[in-house]
Amino acid sequence: MDAYCNRHVNIFDTTLRDGEQAPGYSLTLDQKVEIAGLSESLGVNTIEVGFPNSSPTDFEAARQISAFLTRATPCVFARATEEDIKSGAKATEKATRRQIQIATLGSDVHIQYKRNMTRQQVLDEAQKALAMAKAHGFDDISLAIEDATRSDFDFLKQLLDVGLQGGATAFAIPDTVGCCLPQEFGRLIGQVRAYVGRDIRISVHCHNDLGMAVANTLAGIEAGGDEVQVTMGGIGERAGNASIEELVAILNYKASILHCTHDIIQHRLYAAVTRLAEFVQLDVPPHKPIIGRNAFATEAGMHQQGVMRCRFTYEFMRAEDFGAESRTVVGRHSGRNILRQRLIQSGVRNISPSVLDRLYNQIMAEPHVERYNDTQLLRQTYESVVEAPADAPALIRTRHRETQLAA
Q: What residue ranges define each of the domains in the chain, with the CATH number in brackets?
């Protein structure tokens, strides 16, 4: 494992192909182009610009994106057919440099039940597809072995041999159905690396069906993978793919352990991923790492007290590193400290403990405590507490203040 440390990891963004093909996530042509631009601005090394032969929109998006990318390499997806490869070549003909990813079959489940083929037919088809890709001018060819994690390794070695002999520059090893644990996936990538040597790229592609996509991707890196296929927000088939924002956070914050470098400009992540979420109307879970609204938010009083004194007591990552914002939120579990801080920020001085206690008790007695994140409302309520008799019930104090305002 140590032999594969201190090295650069390529980031391969498949948002516009595997991510976008998930149900409900279709993008318009203009949106695809914008997302590709955001991806390149992040520092992504390779952008899978789509599956050109699947539809006229996909073809046109791949064509336009391939023509304008200046730093990232456009990659087109193709089945092992001449039509797909020819379409991919035409879509990328104006690219400065380009890549094609050709899908083949790794498991008997797919060979028998998806394609009704024999293993030999799969090997022959892959060999012909590689030759066609070279004939159409592709120098960078990735052979993607679909469902590789359920493959028999003896057959997998035969596919690797076909790729090595046919001029493949990379092998994509997907956990297509997301069935692996990290130790299983890492072991497979280690076996593939040992078999093909160090001079060919191994691209890991993990799905999140067991919630292991990012963990498996990291295991793949540690075992010798040097490229990771990810999507913005982790969108993708079924439970999705490995999230670029989560993976980059780990590579950065655990750099002393992982010893890997990459080219992603971290502080641009939040804006890029939230833009995609807007396009596909993605309902981001509040607790989603990095991009969820609660990812850098604190409500509990004990935690808020620590964060207000030193934010790193409960936030070991900085929100601004990702272009996000750290927040302390008034809520049912908040304490007096957050109320005092908000009042001071609004210009209130000399807040007595007794008044703060009455304010706290009044706010916590209400059904919708979160509305006091409105600083103006909080200050008005504080002023009503100050002006009302100290022994008046909360409702009377509130009405007293409302009467004063009406007068």
A: 2-280 (3.20.20.70), 297-406 (no CATH)
